[in-house]
Structures
1.
Amino acid sequence: MIIKFLNAMKSEFGITVTDVSLTNEPDFKNTYESMNETPDRLIKIIPNLKQN
């Protein structure tokens, strides 16, 4: 799904996305509902991501 989105950004708007990050500001602790992952949890998640 994300690949389709990135391809659409290129074809529709001419934007080439070169980097996608699993987290943004991993040390930031927000007070609202969000994806807050610990470093230990990220270590388990990252190997399961496939690179295209």
2.
Amino acid sequence: MYNIDKTRNMNLKKIILEIIKDNPEISRSKFDRVYYSKVSYKNNWVSIVQELRSEKLIEVNQLKITSKGLDYLEDNSN
């Protein structure tokens, strides 16, 4: 059986990483606007960002992508 939640989570991670990559100095409020212009309001980004931080794909205190995050995007691009 295919895990839909895992796929959705991967897609949200990719969206978040792409937003941060395309906007390296993005503020939280602008990030919020850009994110919700791409994703439904029912998909909160806070828990996904925490997960990305724990995986060291973005920096802990900022919305900045790490080299590991860039590698993740490259490995998971279509």
